[in-house]
């Protein structure tokens, strides 16, 4: 009976993983397939073609001034994601520290508010943001998109960092205070050095979420495009170009996921599972 359950679990795991991995493999295969073979399914399945880098050359090095040129898109996505990550960490780190290591009157209410903000869908704020950004001149700017991404990632970053701060014993802070360190000195010189792994994991996950975010980037930018928005601009019969651009966008995200895979479950479950 135990062997039967184990086999059923293994088969279920293989099926579940296949549902996610096979579309990605097909996407990668399409990126290296010549345009004249893309609609010839038997040839694609038999790998009866010479792989080509022409799709990547066109979307990355493509003709300047055309919709195929994605060089500036790569720059915009990188700068927006880095700026959004920095803003998220700068705002989330002291808040997470306060929620974890300090006790004050409204701490429970603030914690619940952060959790509720995490469940708010981007579509709920996108239209008010468009009007606000238009009035203050942030529409179609990297800073504007980065601020929106940071606001969206802030609850996640706070909850994840709080779970890392919870792992630091209170005795460490108390010992530093007894040695004469102020609360600010304890935070910057004692606690933060112990949080390097948690800060790195949170930064990478925030970067990935900003890099792949589509809705806010679409509505808050017109000339300035991120990678997901650029992929949406290409018309649907350009499968090779769309696949190449998307495959290029997946590479840094995949590398970062491998770097923080041991923290990924904690991040995706808001720190519940350690």
How would you describe this protein?
- The protein has 274 residues and is an all-alpha fold.
- It has one domain (71-268): Orthogonal Bundle (MetI-like fold), CATH 1.10.3720.10.
- 74% of the residues lie in helices and 0% in strands.
- The two termini are 31 Å apart.
- The relative contact order is 0.13.
Question: What would you say about this model in short?
Answer:
With 274 residues, the chain is mostly helical.
Structural class comes to mainly alpha
* Sequence stretches where pLDDT stays below 50 over 5 or more residues: none
Number of helices: 14
Mean of residue pLDDT values: 80
Give the CA-CA distance, first to last residue.
31 Å
Features:
274 residues, MetI-like fold
Describe the secondary structure blueprint for this structure.
Layout: H1 2-31, H2 41-45, H3 54-60, H4 71-101, H5 107-118, H6 123-136, H7 142-166, H8 170-178, H9 183-194, H10 196-212, H11 215-220, H12 227-233, H13 239-259, H14 261-268
